[in-house]
Amino acid sequence: MSAIYDRVALIGLGLIASSMFWASKRRSLAGEVTGFARSAETRETARRIGLCDRVCESAAEAVEGADLVVLCVPVGAMASVAAEIGPFLKPGATVTDVGSVKRDVIENVCVHLPDNVHFIPGHPLAGTEHSGPDSGFAELFDNRWCLLVPVEGSDRDALAQLRAFWEGLGSNVEEMDADHHDLVLAVTSHAPHLIAYTMVGVADDLRRVTDSEVIKYSAAGFRDFTRIAASDPTMWRDVFLTNKDATLEILGRFTEELFALQRAIRTGDGDHLHDYFTRTRAIRRGIIEAGQDTDAPDFGRVKQPK
Amino acid sequence: MSAIYDRVALIGLGLIASSMFWASKRRSLAGEVTGFARSAETRETARRIGLCDRVCESAAEAVEGADLVVLCVPVGAMASVAAEIGPFLKPGATVTDVGSVKRDVIENVCVHLPDNVHFIPGHPLAGTEHSGPDSGFAELFDNRWCLLVPVEGSDRDALAQLRAFWEGLGSNVEEMDADHHDLVLAVTSHAPHLIAYTMVGVADDLRRVTDSEVIKYSAAGFRDFTRIAASDPTMWRDVFLTNKDATLEILGRFTEELFALQRAIRTGDGDHLHDYFTRTRAIRRGIIEAGQDTDAPDFGRVKQPK
After folding, report:
1. Domains (ranges, CATH) in chain A?
2. Which residues on neighbouring strands pair with residue B172, listed in sequence order?
3. Which of B135, B221, B234 faces A192 most closely, judged by CB atoms?
4. Model-level pTM?
5. How far is the alpha carbon of B115 from chain A, nearest alpha carbon, in Å?
6. Strand order across the B30-36 sheet
7. H or E segment at B25?
8. What is the ipTM of this complex?
9. Using CB atoms and an 8 Å cut-off, which of residues 245-284 of chain B contact chain A?
């Protein structure tokens, strides 16, 4: 594949940026990739492992002459990064981001960008429980969705070019408006993460069951929650603070439903429970058929005999 | 390894029983294994795939002459199965079960067993989201815990023999008393399952987000919940109805904590969120160090580059 952008700048060098770099190298999607991270330690790691063609000492230096600038920092840090790079952006450049919340990013980033660049927010729905510059890998986006959220007046050519770039990284691309994005993600990602964090915190807190028991016997179900509850704390703090309304709405629905099931347990209404548990099985089948998970028992943690 | 029991009878032929059969064959732990399932279709499947040395047409026939009888039916069906087999048990035989709740099983099964058999309740903490006779495999119990819950007067020799059998199947065995078992499992298994079922049900219900969106974008976190929410509805209905008090207690703690996090989101208390999310990471590390999960990113769903 020939390069889609001559120069790409990655601002923030965590799991997503590092995976974008390796995925971009895999298919030579960019002529040169520069990178910047606020922490000297992260920049040092990046240089050591060959992450980015050139690791810069400032965000301004990294974006200079870049045709595509990708903001890969926590949502709460987007505005200050945008303010920092705004004056140094190349006219005609595309600026995008990978934040998990879109309305807040749009409101806080736009104001810092000059009129002569294209701002096209984005969000790759991919990740693992690991974070940092050495957690990335080229296959992270393969067959995962990337949502692009064009704002009013987004240039169609710039959008098409960004779409081609994400497709080259391995993603399936869809467009969505910002408010719908934030609601869909509240359901599929933000509320589940908060619930997982909560359950893990409760288990950790319980005096009559020791931590060591929780850990030893985690394979009985609890373990599945701990993966997403091990995600980056700063990233997730920012997600909840910036997608407050949609997240609280879904959590309200969740609590309502949980109370109904608790009442069914208390009153011994086995039919209600059985019906509910039967319905949820169908969703799992849908996810496997859609290629968004593996049907291997127990996520393939154990080997099968044949 | 030489046989630990001459004759073993498996009553109920789902995921656990079928895995016990294959694991027992792997190391020749039993001379002959008989099996029975209430459903003619399950018995037919068992015969077709060679599950059990002999599939019987009644529970009474299956337990005749057996040195070890394992009740592998949902918790709510244990009492009626015990009543059915009671008169046909061999004097001196050991009767055990694999139910996820222990106090209720002890109270309802003991009364149906003659005095001349040993009843030693058990619970292997292993499973997958699949169920039925063809879902079992020999490695299911490898490096997983099996909890034995001796009752008052349990014979030490019979207990040692059952322990050796479970160790032969691949498990690490511990003893625990029934009430503590039910509380530990409420934390590590029962509450997490109910919460996962609830979240999946809420997502399914939401009018403004279509099912297809929930499924397409599930890799953002929601997906991890759907595995355990695809577990067998009958088994889980029985678990909640029979471990009511401990489950409701943990769910009460969960709700309290969830409300505190919701309030932190509403009031914008980022420090509270960040501290909470940092603490939960440590539990994940503990689980991986204890060998109860894999550290592969995203459960190894994606291939790593090198």
Report:
1. 5-176 (3.40.50.720), 180-294 (1.10.3660.10)
2. B145
3. B221
4. 0.91
5. 32
6. B54-55, B30-36, B5-11, B68-71, B94-97, B118-119
7. helix B15-26
8. 0.91
9. 247-248, 250-251, 253-255, 257-258, 261-262, 265-266, 268, 270, 273-274, 276-284
